[in-house]
Amino acid sequence: MSAPDLPLWAAILVSFFLVAGALVTLLGSIGLWRLPDFYARLHAPSLGATLGTGLILVASMICFSVLQGRPLVHEVLIGLFVTITTPVTLMLLASASLYRDRVEGNDAAPKKDPPPTEL
């Protein structure tokens, strides 16, 4: 059971998803480096990590499902945990930074919360 055992169609799919996941993660890292302030920098790595990890997990699911001849869904649990924990971490970081900036009087922080929207 190795990579040469993969059929051509599966190898192409796995390669596509791996490269796409790596590129999305790279874009998130570049966004972290290039965006101007902390609040803008929060979005790029969280989106890159979630989507990039998801694409890499899809590649892993295809590869190991084809090699073992049965569906493997261990990666679904990993994807579920990444999808749940990344936005929660983003919100906690943003809330802590917003509180700190407002207490210190930093001009980079928004002065007040936006009004709630009605449904």
TrEMBL record:
UniProt keyword Membrane present: yes
Database matches in PANTHER family: ANTIPORTER SUBUNIT MNHG2-RELATED
Instruction: Report TM segments.
Output: 6-35, 47-67, 73-94
Keywords (A to Z) from UniProt: Membrane, Transmembrane, Transmembrane helix
One Pfam family this sequence matches: PhaG_MnhG_YufB
Origin organism of this chain? Ancylobacter vacuolatus
Q: What is the lineage of its organism?
A: Bacteria, Pseudomonadati, Pseudomonadota, Alphaproteobacteria, Hyphomicrobiales
Q: Where does the source fall among the domains of life? A: Bacteria
Transmembrane: present as a keyword of the record? yes
How is this protein named in the record?
Multicomponent K+:H+ antiporter subunit G
